[in-house]
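Pipeline run #58 for the internal structure catalog. This entry was flagged by the ingest filter as a single-chain record with no existing model, so it goes straight to prediction. Upstream metadata was stripped on purpose; only the residue string is passed forward. Reviewer on rotation: M.T. Logging verbosity set to normal.
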Amino acid sequence: MSFPSATKVLVVGAGPAGMACALSLWYAGVKDVVVVDAVDQGDHSSRAMVIHAATLEALDTIGCADSMVEHGIKVSAMDYYDRFDSLLMGVDFDGLIGKTRFPFYLLLPQHITEKILGEKMQEVGIPVFRPYKAVGMRENPKDGRAVDVSFDNGQSITAHYVVGADGAQSAVRQLSGLGFADPNAAPGEPEDINTLAQMVIADVTFSEPPTLPNILFGVVSIESFFIFSPLQYPIKGSKDTHGKTVYRIACGVPLSLGAPPSKPSVEYCQELIERYGPGSLSRDKSKNPNAVAVSDVVWSTRFRTRCAVAERFFTHFGSTSSPGASVCVIGDAAHIHPPAGGQGMNLGLRDAVSLGPVIAAALTAGPSSETDEKVRAHMALRRERAVKVIGMTKVMSGAVGMSPALRSKFAWSPIHIYTIRDWVFWALGKSNWIRQTLAYRFSGLGAP
């Protein structure tokens, strides 16, 4: 298929948010939509693996939820332990029963989520043009409500709506002049760094099957937070596992240890487990009678965590003398935050699915200040929800990671602050109301 010269809606980015937005537009009746992506098929890395109930409800409206549930693992608890395998707190998702068709969270690697969305795109006939990297935007000289988007391959397209779903380094957001900063930090204020400021994610196999719960759980330690989960789908292009079960581990790396390698090795992952993982994953028989060791790293990466949100999720692109084209940003192009509670991709997917009917209604009504205001109001609500999620993940990562500033406030205490933290987690975890309230907050059902 040849690349079109014009479209009503251009979606830049074919990750989960971009594809979900295109499908939402299609289901809302907008068939004139073009999707582009800067990278070749299969080049997306895979970090997210949790899909919550509100997100599944949104995905159900574009015909993707059932397939994801079929491919994923349904989990009703999210437990947090100390390094000695003692349960500190459990988040109970059974409290969602009767409130949703999906009273659980789903473990499904991001590349499988993308595969299912991509297959639905093919089914309804929405192609993705690759590689098309957006490098420029200028007002269309003949239509004041359109913008010409140019790409690094020399081609361009005219669009009335541009949806930036092109990640944290979004070209659409930058070309539109939208700021991107921590919504809770004062100008010039230094970032409050905790022990989750940099993290490693790896898909690994072990010498022997670990004697651990076959669900996602976290381990809270003095200097880090460690996550462990079974992973039924290794990343495409990763090493052959020779039939062994693959597990996802994620771990905060204290800044005092320096930057982790770009592709952490078997030895590096094993060292993280020995320092910060559960005792039952140790290869040291003096600590773990059923000693196990990392036998292979199937895939691994590192990343820095930070919080930022676009100053607006909707803007006009054009000169002051013209109305300008409509630009929206969603997903990581609009907001980023630490991975606490598995919120990032979920929030982006709900941005995407909710936007389709809004743009469809705007196109049906035709251009006007009233139409613009409805889109603006919707995107303002999405931003408000993003700021709340960022606040929640900050509290969670701060409680687990303990920033230096927070630790210094408890320097006077004869009891170590991490011991106090664990006691607080343990006490809070005794309340069924708190366990189920946390699950409801994580699920997104209260503010989809």
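catalog note: The chain has eleven helices and 21 strands.
catalog note: The longest strand covers residues 294-304.
status: ready for reviewer M.T.
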